[in-house]
Design brief:
369 residues; seven-stranded mixed sheet; five-stranded mixed sheet; 12 strands
Length: 369
């Protein structure tokens, strides 16, 4: 495995010098603790590899609907047979990576920034990305009384979820493309980039503390329900209007020891995505039911109905876009050039797709050799 270089944040003391993107929160940003494990419907049939349980982490976010629906509908459990699916809900990327590294979970759904940083921090030894889950679902939403055009964003206060997270990097990259200048760490410049957790962004918007936000769903649609307007959908900035927002990762140790379980799990995610795309309304209701179970509150129709269609559920990890996102962070000065060779192992997924007569997905030259 080629040596990797560690991400850094300029100007911080060594004691606080965690990789910048590794501290990024997930789409909703509701804290950092995992909820207690939940066990799926009873496992039936023969255990795969004789394994009793496979432990899976995901977030209570719409962008993790492959996990939400696959769990809620029992589709993933069906593929695992007698091996029980046990799940834990996380609200922050770093805590899920820590759980994976500690062996508390075996497989996880996670965004591109935590996946990159987990891989880089471990010098390429902790995880592999083994499949895709979701694309899109990120928007620039603004106060229509203050911002009517994209050029009007200059001089305004725009929220992002956290310094160095996936949306923060995307917004900084967009600002640079406009020819405007912003200090990436302080957020000060031609635009004021205000970092805050997504759960507090709606109140900040209503109070006038921010004029808009570059955020994922469902936060974007929550802001729209509070009077904001969608000014830009990030998908329009990407080729084919697709970019990775959620990946499937696995511990390298677990992949080596239980490849048949990993393959069965991926069959479950593939079948889940197929069901979601064939039954969008039922899938939306299923995801919302799981969100209610996990968080105690379902999303109202005025939020979930506009949010759901903006997310595409796909088995393709869209590897080229992850590589581009890392490049954007480097360009912004938030990330040292990482060595991502070997971060993907798409062989199990492509085996499943081939069996279904579907084309293979690419690793952008970043797969295992």
């Amino acid at each position: 495995m080629p040596a990797t270089r560690t991400t850094v944040r300029r100007g911080l003391a060594a004691a606080a010098a965690l990789p910048l993107l590794a501290i990024a929160l997930t789409a909703c940003g509701y804290g950092s603790q995992a909820k207690a494990d939940k066990v799926a419907p009873a496992a039936k049939g023969k255990k795969i590899d004789g394994l009793d349980t496979v432990r899976v982490g995901y977030f209570p976010n719409l962008t993790h609907a492959t996990a939400l629906v696959g769990d809620q509908e029992g589709i993933i459990q069906q593929e695992l047979g007698g091996t029980q699916l046990s799940t834990a809900a996380f609200n922050a990327g770093p805590s899920e990576i820590e759980a994976l590294n500690a062996g508390s979970i075996d497989i996880g759904f996670i965004g591109p920034s935590p996946a990159v940083n987990g891989y880089v921090k471990s010098q390429g030894k902790s995880l592999r990305i083994i499949g895709g889950s979701a694309s899109g679902g990120v928007k620039l939403v603004v106060n229509p009384k203050k911002i009517k055009t994209l050029d009007d964003v200059k001089g305004k206060r725009i929220a992002t979820p956290q310094l160095g997270n996936t949306q923060d990097v995307a917004f900084l990259n967009w600002i640079a493309a406009k020819g405007w200048k912003v200090d990436p760490e302080s957020g000060k410049g031609d635009v004021s980039v205000v970092r805050m957790e997504n759960k507090v962004t709606p109140n900040a918007y209503l109070s006038g503390s921010v004029d808009g936000a570059w955020v994922p769903e469902p936060t974007a649609s929550k802001l729209v329900s509070d009077g904001a307007k969608v000014l830009l959908d990030e998908s329009t900035l990407w080729p084919g209007k697709k970019f990775v927002i959620t990946n499937v990762i696995v511990s390298q140790k677990f992949l080596a020891e239980h490849p048949a379980v990993v393959e069965a799990f991926l069959r479950g995610t593939v079948k889940t995505n197929e069901w979601i795309n064939a039954n969008p309304d039922k899938a939306k209701a299923s995801a919302n039911a799981k969100l209610q179970e996990l968080t105690g509150k379902a999303l109202p129709a005025k939020v979930i109905d506009p949010a759901w269609p903006s997310i595409q559920f796909t088995d393709d990890p869209l590897a080229a876009t992850l590589d581009a996102q890392a490049g954007h962070a480097v360009k912004a000065g938030l990330l040292q050039q990482p060595d991502l060779a070997g971060i993907y192992d798409l062989r199990p997924l492509n085996k499943i797709l081939e069996a279904e007569g579907r084309p293979a997905v690419a690793d952008a030259g970043l797969g295992v050799s």
